[in-house]
What does this fold into?
Amino acid sequence: MAAVRPLPQQSIIECIPPASEIADLRILNKDLNFIQAMTKRADDLNAQAQSATDYSELVKVTDSFSKLAERAEVKTKTLKELSNDSNPLTEVNSSAELLEKVQILSQTLESKTQELSGLYNSNESSLLDSYESSIAELNNQIDLTSSPDGVVTLFPQIESLFKEIEENARYVSNSSESSTLTENIQKLASNYADKAEQYSDAFMSEMGSQISLLNDGINSLRANIDYLNSNSSVQSHLERLSEIREQVNASASIYKNYPGARDMVYNLDTVSIATHARVEEMAHSNEIITDLMPLVNDPEALVRAVKEAAIRTDVSTVENVLIPLTNKANELSAKVIELAGRYDAGNFGDIKVRAVSSFDKTVERLDRQYISIRSTDPEALAANISGLSNNIESNMGAVRSVDPASQVEYFASLNTRVVDSVNTSDFSIFVNNVISIPGDVMMSSRNCVDAAFKDFTREFGNNIESFFDPLLTFLIVIEKLLLSTPWPIFLAVAGALAWLGSRSIKVSIGVMAAFFVIGFLDMWEPMVSTVTMISAATLLCLALGIPLGIWMSRSNRAQSWITPVLDIMQTIPSFVYLIPVVMMLGIGKVPGLIAVCIYAMPPIVRLTNLGIRLVDKEAMEAADAFGATYRQRLFMVQMPLALPNIFAGINQTIMMALAMVVIASMIGVAGLGLPVLQAVQNQFLSMGMLNGLAIVALAVIFDRVSQAFGTRIQKHRSGDVL
It folds into this structure.
């Protein structure tokens, strides 16, 4: 019994209005909440301004007022819609109430600013005096500094002062003394830089001595690694190594810019790796000797066990000590007993390999530490101070002053911005929002499109598949015929076809040689599948494309309709039109053939149309003068003269069809593209290159033969070839 698919229950048109209503409702709720929140925020800011007793509190309220105005500009459309008296939503909340609250806030801030203006003046003077005093004191400390450590010690104080000045720049930027403050900041930074430069050499010399001592300690530990012969010696070695690591880590910011610091870290890392390897060697040697001890009285078993250990491990004790004694059973047993006693005396069984591994990872992170940490050498600190001073100078000229006069002007501008947001014209709103579509409408519409397409495929999928069954049969028959043909006959037929097309011995031999190499490299069956697909796709494209090109050449209206479709076929990503093809027909040869045809058909259509339109008008007038019918003009005059363009289209169609081989393999099309896809997914270089070169070889074969055939036909039509 045939499966029955349900008819589509909902159309896209029916689906969009409910989605629009849902989206409008959600947006409406959000907008109402927004208006209420804005109004309440303006009310709260007004209360904060009224209760302010310090000028800095008013500045903070002003900053919040600025954010409210920015938010209003973002929500211009909503404010406009809720400002209309005829709008029933204004009964719930309206922009008029928000405007009233903003106006009151602006007035409160203005009056409160005038009231506390005296505090601003005193605060400005206090800040300037404090900064000047701190700068003078720091200059004195810099002058008294007599060592690199003193330069480093002063950095946090100067950095903290400069950051505070930068943060409070808007409180002093409008003062007549701000330029003097900026000059003094630059002088302080310059004084610090001079002092840092003065002691830079001494600092580097001291760092060099410290790093040299650390390197001596590291080299000593490196030399000691080969002499580790007990658990206690390992522990002592690790303790010394840990001390050096902690010192290197603690002084990372100081050592960072010294030229030899990175080499020191590398040396320490190398010693840590070698230590880890040595400890692992000791532990593994102990494990192997422990396993061998029960076999010391059985020479044959002991020899086998030693050889197996040599195969399974790369422990030097086995390779260098035990393997040379495998031909001397007694000496081998004695050596195993000797090693067991030595390891037992050295407590090899107590060695903690995991702890050493953890330590090695800690040392490994030192390199990243030296990259990321901020340097604290005098020159680097001086550069940081110089950067902060330059930032202060820039901010003094760019920051908005918060003096009373500037604040009052700013309040008025904020109030105006909110009013303008409400009174913005409908045209401005349309321009600013013309490309915005509510997310709910888009999501619901996409769901409707997907559902409708799925219903369509369920309803008519069997009919579509039945329609393409003859095409599938044709592909299968041709492929089986080619696969069943003995390869010598295949090569002979291919050479003969190449000769008929090109009349060139070189081209014929080249075609046969290329096919032979492809078969010799075990790619015969994929090649036949690809040739079948390309041949069928090319024939289908020619059968549909040439008539379309002729129709376009006859009618400008047809050309105006078909050209955009061809543009879409050529520009849309091939993966996109694979989706509907696969959904309708599944995966296999037919969907791949359709995908190839969609991609490869535009050239033959365009160039057929172009070739016929470029036929000389005088030739057409001569045909008309002889009384030729339309069919005679088309087949006896236009088509022969348009052959160069038509064959160029055929050549391009073949090349584009070959270009789709790999992509078509993604939907189950067998051929040379499938191994290429598998090679990309699994990183099989050889397989990918061989099959890729085979595709290139096919492209060259089809290209040369089709071009030669087109050239020969053109010469034959012009009378150059009999």
About this structure: The CA atoms of residues 99 and 419 lie 7 Å apart. Residues 468-718 form a domain with the MetI-like fold fold (CATH 1.10.3720.10). Residues 178-224 form the longest helix (47 residues). DSSP finds 32 helices and no strands in the chain.
